[in-house]
Each structure stands twice: as structure tokens, then as C-alpha cells.
Amino acid sequence: MGALHALLQRIGAAPSATGAQLQDWAGRLLDLMRGPFLSAEDADWAQAARERYRQRFVVAVAQLAARLEPIDADAAALLYQRALDIEPLAESLSRRLIRLHAARGDYAEALRSWRTCCTMLRAAGGPGPARETRALAAELGLPGDQAV
User: Fold this and answer.
1) Per-residue confidence (pLDDT) for residue 14, from 0 to 100
2) Residue ranges of the alpha helices (H) in the chain?
């Protein structure tokens, strides 16, 4: 996990990275974080470490994609989508992806991302989307999460 830790530090410490550098880091981040950290270990210490890396991964993806959006919105959307394949319950990334699709005028993709978010959250046994996510959907005119 040393490589992941070093990459996460580099991402957070380089606010003026080029688009190519951002895309390279995004690819490396997705290669390094292919699933839950220490997934075979159930000990408390492993669960705590797993959650820390999950949170850091989500933050790093959000930072990278936000910096990519004005340069290459397609690359940012792909980064969000691939990150959600790894962390499907990262609702903050779902919101960012929904907002990006809407900002680009792609209502169908915004709707698809909204529906996927609702489905994944419910499949995990949760109550569904958070208030912030439902408010975004309402703002964009997407159907209520009960209709999904």
C-alpha cells in the first residue's frame, strides 16, 4: 500500500498539475485501488484501515476529477464511473457525476447515474439517497428516488 499512499500524497500536494499528469494519476489510482483494502481481514484494525483508505480514495478521485472537469469532461466522467465501480456506495461521487452530466446537457446520463445511485444504495440495505442527493435530483428535475 506504499505506492497508493505515495500517490494519494502527490495528488493532494500538486494543485497545478497538467491534464496529462492528472489523467496519469487517475489511471494509477484506479489500478492501485481495485477493491477494498485488506478485504480478507475482519479484525478491527483492518476494518479501520480499510475505511481510511476508502475515504482517501474517494477524496482523491473527487480532487482529480474536479480538476479534470474543465480540461476534459469526458475523462472526468470516466474517472467518476470507474471509481464508482470500485466504491459503488460513494454517494458523493455519484452526485458529482450526476451534476457533471447535467452540466454537459446529457440528461439521459444524469438520469442513469441517479438511478444507479439509488439502486446501489438500496441494494446495500440502506435507506436510499441522502437528502443532499435527493435535493440535487429535484433541482435537476430527475424523478423522485421512490420512482426509481
Assistant:
1) 67
2) 2-13, 19-32, 44-68, 73-86, 91-103, 107-123, 131-140
